[in-house]
Amino acid sequence: MRTHRGRSSQARHRTDRAGRVAAAVVVVAAVATGASVLAGPATRPLLAASCDVQALGTLGGRFGNATAVNRQGVTVGIADDAKGAAQPVMWLGTTPQRLATGLSGSVPHAINAADQVVGTGIDQAAGSPAGWVWSHSRATRLRSVEDRVASPEAINDRGVIVGALAPDEGGPAEARSKVPGENDHEWAVRWSSASSRPVVLTPLPGDQGAHAFAVDGAGRAGGVSQGTSFTPVVWEASGQARALATLGGGYGVVRGFDAAGVAVGDAVRADGADHPVMWDVAGRITDLGLPPGARSAKAEAILPNGVIVGTAELLVDGGTRTQAMQWTAPNAARVLPSATGAAANAGGSTTVVGYRADGAGGRHPARWRCGR
């Protein structure tokens, strides 16, 4: 997937997902509705209160990353086996079980309350990426069109899946379009079930592509419409696209919903800084603010207790660190507890999952219980 704002549309999405797919590096932040507001200025984000961190096991290797969690606390991600190869896994407690997908390099992206898991992997025979759904110990390949690959991002509790159909840049040449430019853009799509055909979610008028990253219980999808600018968008269950407000910088994306229809994500301001944001049901935007010492941040999800979780790029010792965060109100950010930093993602629960980083940068799967 190319970048936004001067780079191609897929790269930034691929960069976002690369945290979870390739390197499994994604962090989160949290904002709480009705929570106490942090008082006074701070030179650095405070440590998040009422969050306990728990180490998750691997398959005999050293490293891993938890990428998603459902409201029951069932967690999915990747964990190294004894040979050091990353495998897709599910943690019911702290012990992982391997998910057999029939693909290599599989990484789970999301899990719903029924323990249905969606993710991506590589079809070695075709030499191309592919999307999959795992349920009751069986994996189903997501349907696509001939010259595109399925990239699922989210699944709701009714089994509705959203994501994108991306150009197949690695498949056989005869399977690709011969029309220059025809395959340059992603198509946002919705699958009504694991076995259904994908339905394209039309971008905003004048735009050429789109990508869906979130789906709510009613089947509304959220993501980005891609054109000369990159506009945050919500697709109603009918498929109708609705543009949301931005911060004036020409880029925004929806990454998560709550049960009431409030959306979260990130948007770029006119000064070029990427900020975590929240949209109310009318599409009005609230800037959640960068944590002290951060150069960018994004919101990923809203927990049932109103907490918004996301990530921040903190400036540390002349470099940067991607850090799991909480915001208890706009401009009131807290980091999740970890001795050396953490990366995390969150689902429809009060649980946040991801990794804890060791002193050498190694990533160890972890789960945080927050907001009790």
Question: What can be said about this structure in brief?
Answer:
This protein is mostly beta strands and 372 residues long. It contains one helix and 29 strands. It has a single domain, classed as Peptidase/esterase 'gauge' domain (Methylamine Dehydrogenase, Chain H, 7 Propeller).
Helices and strands in order:
Blueprint: H1 9-18, E1 46-47, E2 51-55, E3 60-69, E4 75-81, E5 86-91, E6 96-98, E7 104-111, E8 117-123, E9 128-135, E10 138-141, E11 148-155, E12 161-167, E13 187-191, E14 199-200, E15 209-215, E16 221-226, E17 230-235, E18 241-243, E19 248-257, E20 263-269, E21 274-279, E22 285-287, E23 294-302, E24 308-316, E25 319-329, E26 332-335, E27 342-346, E28 351-357, E29 363-370
Parallel strand pairs: 1-26
Antiparallel strand pairs: 2-29, 3-4, 4-5, 5-6, 7-8, 8-9, 9-10, 11-12, 12-13, 13-14, 15-16, 16-17, 17-18, 19-20, 20-21, 21-22, 23-24, 24-25, 25-26, 27-28, 28-29
Strand content of the residues, in percent?
over 45%
CATH topology: Methylamine Dehydrogenase, Chain H
At the first level of CATH, what is the class?
Mainly Beta
**What is the average of the pLDDT values?**
83
CATH architecture name: 7 Propeller
SSE arrangement, N to C: HEEEEEEEEEEEEEEEEEEEEEEEEEEEEE
Helix-strand category: mainly beta
User: How widely separated are the two ends?
Assistant: 38 Å
Q: Helicity, in percent?
A: under 10%
Order of strands in the sheet with the most strands?
Answer: 1-26-25-24-23
Q: How many strand elements? A: 29
